[in-house]
Structures are given as structure tokens and as C-alpha cells.
Amino acid sequence: MENKNIIIILAVIAVILAVIAGVMFMQSGHGKEASKIKIVSDKSQDVGGTLKIQLTDMNKTALSKEKVKVIVVNKKGKVVVNETVKTDMKGKAKLDLDLKKGTYTVNATYDGNDNYTGNSTSQKLTLKEKKTEKVDEVDLSKYPEYSSQLGHYRKTGIAQDECGVVELSNGQYVVIAGDGHYEYLGQDSQGNIKMGNRL
């Protein structure tokens, strides 16, 4: 009789353990929808750029108000950014980067929630110095005249009646007439100035 009771108790314990294991299995992520996380900003940016991340389900439906952990590591392996950002209504999150020029590895991790599984992604990021437009300095000895409409210019000596041809500091030739400025199209066979469209 004792063996029979022991067998029944062991059978009940096995059933209870099986139920507990099944519940734990269901809570461990099975039955959840998969998520997809993507870094959508450029892999090469100017210093002072912005990191952009998008979080969706597999049907590309945005996952809003979700937290994404962002870790940026420099080429020496040092963590230089360790932030958490929150997605907006479109499933997008951004983080302004206050980093020096160089190459970095960006890791973005979503831990998941009751409905979606976690996911992560990584990407190389290169930050470079901003290109600044080089402003040519005008050689005032070559272009001594100035007009607020034309900028710096020089007289060419080509003139006719009330018209005169000038060379602008950018190399363009313009006709200055009594009623405005015109494109310079050269001279005809008699030396008369040919004018184009009004500038």
C-alpha cells in the first residue's frame, strides 16, 4: 500500500511540474510577436550628427512608446554613449551625437514587452569633420569697385554710349546700363556691345 501511495504522490508531483513548466514556457516569449529594430541614419555623418532608430513588428507596424538602449563604442572598445531613447508614434527614436570624428560601433537593443520579443542590431558609424565652403577672398587690387547688386568688380574698358562692361570677381562679364545690369554676350562686327537677359 505504501508503494502505491508513493507512486500516486510522484505522479501528482510530475503533473504539477509539467503544468508549471508549460506556464513558464508560454511566458518565456513564445506566443509573442517578433520585433524588428533598425538603425536608419547614415553610416557616415558629419560630427554633430543624429543617430536615428526605427522599431517595428515584422509587418512594419510602428512600435511606439518603447524604450531602446543605445550603446556607442569607440575603436578602442570604450563605451562613449550609454543612453535609453523612447520611440515616437511612428516607432522612431533619435539621439544627438556629441562625439569627435572617428569610427564607432553603435548597438541598439530593444528588450521587448508583453506582446513583442526583444531584438538588437549594430552598425559601424563614421563621423567626419563638417565640410565648410571655402569663401574665396576677393583680391581688392584686381576688383577695386563694389556694388551691392554685383559685389566686387573691375571695369574692362569696353564701353558704348551709357553702357560699360565689367568683370565680376567670379569671372562673369556683365553690362552695366543706365536701366540695370545685363548679361554680356560679346561684341558684334562693328564693336557694338551685345546684351542678353537682364540680371
Structure description:
With 199 residues, this protein is mainly β. It has two domains: 35-128, Macroglobulin (MG2) domain (Immunoglobulin-like); 145-198. 13% of the residues lie in helices and 47% in strands. It has one helix and 14 strands, in the order αββββββββββββββ. The protein has one helix spanning 2-27; strands spanning 35-39, 44-46, 50-57, 67-74, 79-86, 92-96, 102-110, 119-128, 145-147, 151-160, 163-168, 173-177, 180-187, 193-198. It has a six-stranded antiparallel β-sheet with strand order 9-10-11-12-13-14, with no helix packed on it. β9 (145-147) and β10 form a beta hairpin. It is rod-shaped, with a radius of gyration of 36 Å. The mean pLDDT is 85.
How many structural domains can be distinguished in the coordinates? Answer: 2
At the fourth level of CATH, the homologous superfamily of the largest domain is: Macroglobulin (MG2) domain
Share of helix, binned: 10-25%
Strand content: over 45%
Q: Which class of the largest domain in CATH terms?
A: Mainly Beta
Give the overall shape. Answer: rod-shaped
Structural class: mainly beta
Number of helices: 1
CATH level 3 topology of the largest domain: Immunoglobulin-like
Mean pLDDT: 85
Number of strands: 14
CATH architecture label name of the largest domain: Sandwich
Order the strands across the largest sheet as they lie in space.
9-10-11-12-13-14
